[in-house]
RNA sequence: UGGGUCGGCAAGACGGUCGCGUUAGUGGGGUUUACUCCGCUACCGAGGAACGUCCGGGCUCCACAGAGUAGGGCGGUGGGUAAUUCCCACCCGGGGUAACCCGCGAGAACAGUGCAACAGAAAGUAAACCGCCUCCGGUUCGCCGGCGGUAAGGAUGAAACGGUGGUGUAAGAGACCACCAGCAGUCUGGGUGACCAGAUUGGCUAGGUAAACCUCGCCCGGAGCAAGGUCAGACAGAGAACGUUGAGGCUACUCGCUGAGUUCUCGGGUAGACCGCUAGAGAAUUGCGGCAACGUAAUUCCGAGAUAGAUGGCCGUCACGCGCAAGCGGACAGAACCCGGCGUAAUAGCCGGCCCAUUCA
């Protein structure tokens, strides 16, 4: 789970990052990032209705937040993770490995 | 024991580890207050449907929400409730051996208009396809044609203008008679009432459909927590039209009320914080009233309130179900102002009442 310092809250931030940030896609998620000078990462999670019904979306969002918490200090950037429908169908281990790998690719390309 | 029917309960438990939100306490930072940020500790932190948003209310603003029309909703009777289209009891009709279940239950479709596929002669002020019968004409003596009468018989249909038996007749018909069914009126008795039971009179018979228009009775003002309010902050205004002889608003329209701005074009800006925000038509137990829904009194209890949106992620153990076993599985689904209903979704179980059948005593 993420504390307030590691969270994105403003709609304007989400718009800014998804439009202008660098983008990496896997079969499960899409990640956007813009470097920042805060010395830590701020995360925002997007789970649309395409992912599933409310309990399913909640579960996916909580899993993604747990993964983001592990990666919270790996880099200095504002990151938005958007879940794709396939993310609701895989196990924790698969999702965990896939998201960390996608974030790493983001890091190297940025 | 088997089958059925009605109702209730519950929505796995425990632990480890890493986290989040509200509140309270505490420490520190932003020079002080206010406010805010970061630590630490403690408590609490999704549902029976939180869902759909289909009804009914509370609450807020519009005039402490007023009149009429339009429009919409409801429809056995009595009761319950803040209120309802909900709930309870009863009545009527239908189904079931029974427990029990079902009915969108107003108008005897006696105000009017309409509708009824297919079949059938005909789907309603009746009507003659076959059949039956009198009379007239013709005849090859088999019958044929015509004017009429006839709803007893045939045939169609979900439904064809009562049923059975008789009198009657050319053949027939409630044309007439008896009994039965049904309808209408009156009276008596019971019930708060829907209605029920009985008696009597009448004319002999009236089809279905109002989840078709319609008629009758009752109910409904509008918009919704993005309601509504407070604070902070930003920018930049210009032009045109209408207006106290009434702009605009309140409602779809008329009245009525209010009383100074409104609309359009071009250009620019904000979409932040706080209140509303959870103790309420509240829950449990017991007593009393009531067949019940429910009411009432006493005692006890109450602890989500988020806002890119907390209430969790990962791992393990034990129960549970399935499988010989390794093992696999645990539904439907997540608060967003709050209640009362309805409807829908779903599954591994547990408990109880009643009915029928069977066995034993």
Quick rundown:
This protein has helices at residues 11-20, 54-70, 92-109, and strands spanning 22-25, 29-35, 42-46, 77-83.
Q: Can you walk me through this structure?
A:
The radius of gyration is 13 Å and the shape is globular. The protein has one domain (4-109): Ribosomal Protein S5, domain 2, CATH 3.30.230.10. The chain has three helices and four strands, in the order αβββαβα. A hairpin with a 3-residue loop joins strand 1 and strand 2. With 110 residues, the protein is of the alpha+beta class. It has a four-stranded mixed sheet with strand order 1-2-4-3, sandwiched between helices. The chain has helices spanning 11-20, 54-70, 92-109; strands spanning 22-25, 29-35, 42-46, 77-83. The protein binds one RNA strand of 361 nucleotides through helix 1, strand 3 and helix 2.
Strand content: 15-25%
Q: Please state how the strands of the largest beta sheet are arranged side by side.
A: 1-2-4-3
For the sheet with most strands, the description reads:
4 strands, mixed
Decide which structural class fits the backbone: alpha+beta
Got a strand count? 4
| Poorly predicted ranges | none
Q: Average pLDDT value?
A: 81
CATH class: Alpha Beta
Distance separating the two termini = 25 Å
The fold-level CATH name is: Ribosomal Protein S5, domain 2
Backbone CA Rg: 13 Å
